[in-house]
Design goal:
This protein has eleven helices and no strands.
Length: 236
């Protein structure tokens, strides 16, 4: 009888956690978990400052500042989440903060497209929809209910790919290389979301697994979009 109490306590603890957190806690923690985003965070800080300083014009500086803050915030929170094993309840809150940072990043890193490619009412509409969508996602993230598996990834992808409806205007407002960089970055985000959703491929679970692939794809996506933003701002 004495052995059943700990199991009941564990059950009560896990019942308060989202399925994604339970899944992460139940799997082996790879040695490289969070390392790439830790590096990305520290590198993003000076790079972001340099980009803002070199940007041509006030609008470009605002766009690159938003882009840099969004990326650094996302990388920094991700690095914190995966810094070490956390108690389940704290890990749950950190995952919520991690998802919040992703929403902020999606909205903030759309600034170069909204401010430097689109114009007029279209610019206002796109930035407003992304800001409201990100805010709604953050609110949904912190509402205490168990989210179905895949819900957050679906929202991330929907919000991130919202500008696809404006591709003709984006294409006309920039050149082919910038357009290709935008699509390539979006493709990397999408591929990463599919990997983390399917938890495959998981090549070396003890060292570098599916989640690490997702992190690397996020870094590649940010780099591609950063190059596009720098080109739009007259830096490259």
């Amino acid at each position: 009888m004495g052995r059943t109490a700990p199991r009941r306590r564990t059950s009560r603890v896990t019942s308060d956690l989202s399925p994604s957190v339970v899944r992460m806690l139940s799997r082996q923690r790879p040695r490289w978990r969070g390392v790439s985003h830790r590096w990305a965070f520290f590198l993003s800080l000076p790079i972001g400052v340099v980009e803002v300083v070199l940007a041509h014009g006030g609008m470009a500086k605002v766009a690159l500042a938003l882009f840099a803050v969004g990326g650094s915030f996302m990388f920094g929170v991700s690095a914190l989440v995966h810094l070490r094993p956390w108690p389940p309840a704290r890990y749950h809150r950190l995952i919520q903060l991690d998802h919040t940072a992703i929403y902020v990043c999606i909205a903030a890193q759309a600034a170069p497209v909204g401010l430097l490619i689109l114009t007029g009412r279209l610019r206002v509409a796109v930035l407003a929809v992304l800001a409201v969508g990100a805010l709604a996602g953050v609110i949904l993230e912190w509402i205490p209910f168990h989210r179905p598996k895949g819900l957050m990834n679906t929202i991330f992808l929907t919000l991130g790919w919202f500008p696809v409806v404006l591709l003709p205007w984006i294409y006309r407002g920039t050149n082919l290389l910038n357009f290709a960089l935008l699509l390539a970055g979006g493709a990397c985000y999408t591929a990463g979301a599919l990997v983390v959703g399917a938890m495959r491929p998981d090549p070396w679970p003890a060292t570098f697994g599916y989640h690490e692939i997702w992190h690397v794809l996020v870094i590649v996506a940010v780099v591609l979009h950063s190059v596009m933003a720098c080109r739009l701002a007259g830096i490259l």
